[in-house]
Amino acid sequence: MTTYPRPASGPRPPLRAGSHEPAPAVPRRGAGGRRLLVVLFLGGLVASVLPWWLDTPTGSLTGGIAMTTAAGQITGLVAGYLLLVQVLMMSRLPVLELWAGGERIARWHRDVAATLLVAVLAHTALILVGYAGLEGRSPLRQAGVMLREYQDMVSAFAAAGLLVLVGLVSVRAVRRVLPYELWHATHLAAYAVLLLGYAHQFSNGSQLFRPGPARTGWIALYVLVIAAWLWGRVIKPLRFNLRHRLRVSDLVTESPDAVSIYLTGVRLDRLELLGGQFFRWRFLTRGCWWQSHPFSVSAAGNDRWLRLTVKVVGRHTQDLRNLDPGVRVWAAGPSGTCTAAHRTRERALLIAAGSGITPLRAMLEELPPNAALIYRARTSADVLLREELDWLARNRGLRVWYVLGSRGDPGPRQVMTPDGIRQLVPDVARRDVYLCGPPGLVEQCRRVLRQAGVRRRQIHLATFEL
Amino acid sequence: MRRALLAITGLAASTTALVVFKAAPGTGQLAREVPAPAPTAAGKAEPAAGPDRKTPSGSPKPTRSAAGASRSASSAAPKRPAASPTGTAAAQPSASTIVGPVATNEFGEVQVRITVVGDRIVNAAALRLPRRTAQSDQRSDQVDSRYSGTVGMVVERQSADLDTITGATATSDSYRGSLQAAIDQAR
């Protein structure tokens, strides 16, 4: 293995601040942008139902059939709008990243997804029952008639089916047992939903089939979302990768099941990377090029190399162990708001579990001194980057606790209580707390921290999973 | 996940609220319907200026079709009198419009207006047609284009004895009903 500079042995990443230097300035990314996004979303929601509202005279809905059909129309409009919002949120538009942050948007995406699924199912059911009542058939026969006689309904039913499938594989319990690759491939099918569901809105939508402002606006919304998607997903990454041309330079085994991948490239000094952020990586080698995975950068930004530390958990990560130096890497990012720049207080507490240490390790150098780190791991062999953490502890006044053992062991159980945390970090309520680890542990930590008096906005989650 | 549950509950609640708000308050609907046939008498009494009069109507969509229909009527009506002086009525070919009653079926309401010169129907227009769904809108358009207008089946046959439009039986029936009543009033 070639000897490439590593923080623990050779030259260290340039430290941004000495132990008594002032901390890096905090860019103000307050709640303003986020609130604006929420207002825009709600405004769009109202606007999408408005055509129905204006089209339906008060008192015109007589009887259950008309009311069922009307409810079907409303849920249809809402579903159409939410689907576009979903795609927009996944467009990785820089503005969204700046105003809300990748992690929050991923959580929104999840919540909207559940609502969208219910809206689509309600739309399908209500319209079927409504039209069936109108024509005096059973809903099942009506479904047959619609598939045969109505324009674009075959593709619309296919879209609904796909959406249900995507929703199904994204249920946490199901997703956990599926390989990431399968989940990802199914999720890509969601774009087909956009395509398949498009036509029926205009051929059968009572509010949209006539030329007019509603129809024009609806089409404009599609154009807008697709443009945003192209910008965030194609043009921006293209520019980034042409500018930096990343390649694998070295692989270092960190533990029996974790490996660090060092990357080099050009103009890395102009990379605007904050510790704690992540990229979506695509390694352009046989078997890997077609999948893109999010991994945090595990060392602070410097002008010579990038590093990601990966835990081997699936087929893809297994393949990453055998990467050859020189392999080209396509990266999309950086994104994420779990960084030192997003803190609200002077001091910080970091809680990591397992490979969740990687983003926190990268931000340690950018945090002001006197940060504290609680590192949960099953055994001491699972502790990653220990030399570097110890080095930071010696040189930057970082306090580190390694909490080893499985969840039920007395040690970890004692620490993961409000009192246990307060015992280690008495001023926890006056610190920003950064969490990274498996979802279950993050959720548990969040509860405990809230009980210990930490405010919600002081808690930062480095979860970029959907 | 809690937020998602909230959102779903919100969706259900607001959809219900919207529908209930737009729903007929039962008796109010009947009260609204009563004045509707009123233009019948008024329309009958009124002479040539009649075709441009818009029938009061609650919903925007029928109004659109009514506006469209009356436009075609007004452009067509002046031509007729010009052509008909050669006929028997000779001296004063005054056109009158008669609006039929509202005929209701399970898809919505149908109301027909005819323009009569002497004892000849020169134009027919649908003031109301069912347009609740895109499908029923298409069917209504079929009925309208076949029956209505200065060269439609109504003018051609001079009676309510019209062929049923395939796939739009109920609307065809209602159209004939409203038309027959209008013709009866004219005679």
Short summary:
The complex is a heterodimer of chains A (466) and B (187). Chain A has 466 residues and is of the alpha/beta class.
Keywords:
heterodimer, A: 466 residues, alpha/beta, Elongation Factor Tu (Ef-tu), domain 3, Rossmann fold, six-stranded antiparallel β-sheet, five-stranded parallel β-sheet, 11 strands, 50% helix, elongated, disordered N terminus, B: 187 residues, alpha+beta, Sufe protein. Chain: A, 2 domains, four-stranded antiparallel β-sheet, 14% strand, FMN-bd (chain B), signal (chain B), FMN-binding domain-containing protein (chain B), 2Fe-2S (chain A), transmembrane helix (chain A)
Overview of the molecule:
The complex is a heterodimer of chains A (466) and B (187). In chain A, helix 12 links the parallel strand 8 (372-377) and strand 9. Chain A contains 15 helices and eleven strands. Chain A folds into three domains: 34-239; 244-335, Elongation Factor Tu (Ef-tu), domain 3; 340-461, 3-Layer(aba) Sandwich (Rossmann fold), CATH 3.40.50.80. The two termini of chain A are 36 Å apart. Chain A is elongated, with a radius of gyration of 25 Å. Chain A has a six-stranded antiparallel beta sheet with strand order 4-3-6-1-2-5, with helices on one face. Chain A has a five-stranded parallel beta sheet with strand order 9-8-7-10-11, with helices on both faces. With 466 residues, chain A is of the alpha/beta class. The longest helix of chain A has 34 residues, at 102-135. In chain A, helix 2 packs antiparallel against helix 4 (102-135), helix 2 (63-89) runs parallel beside helix 9 and helix 6 runs antiparallel to helix 8 (180-204). Residues 1-28 of chain A have low confidence and may be disordered. With 187 residues, chain B is α+β, with helices and mostly antiparallel strands. Chain B folds into two domains: 2-61, no CATH class; 95-186, Sufe protein. Chain: A (Alpha-Beta Complex), CATH 3.90.1010.20. Chain B has eight helices and four strands, in the order H-H-H-H-H-E-E-E-E-H-H-H. Classes of the chains: A alpha/beta (466), B alpha+beta (187). The A-B interface holds A 49, 52-62, 65-67, 69-71, 74-75, 78, 110-115, 118-119, 122, 131, 134, 136, 150, 203-206, 209 and B 1, 3-5, 7-8, 11-12, 15-16, 18-25, 28-29, 32, 58-61, 106-107, 131-137.
